User: Which sequence fits this backbone?
């Protein structure tokens, strides 16, 4: 878990959507589609910030480069 925190940090939904190059609406659809996987990782619907574990999952799933 410590490794996740070093590479991936909590991010605003809008910030991660921007990094992915998609609109907030599209990003919201991605979250809805992955709900079954991200809720156990700590995702809470309506939170502005995504926890590091969810950021990691989404970056790997949708090939989002944070650098």
Assistant:
């Amino acid at each position: 878990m410590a490794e996740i925190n070093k590479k991936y940090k909590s991010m605003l939904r809008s910030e991660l959507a921007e990094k992915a190059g998609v609109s907030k609406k599209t990003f919201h659809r991605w979250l809805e589609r992955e709900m079954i996987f991200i809720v156990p990782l700590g995702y809470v619907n309506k939170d502005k910030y995504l926890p590091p574990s969810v950021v990691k999952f989404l970056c790997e799933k949708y090939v989002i480069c944070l650098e």
Q: What stands out?
A: The longest strand covers residues 11-12. The first helix runs from residue 2 to 7. The chain has one domain: 2-62. The chain has five helices and two strands.
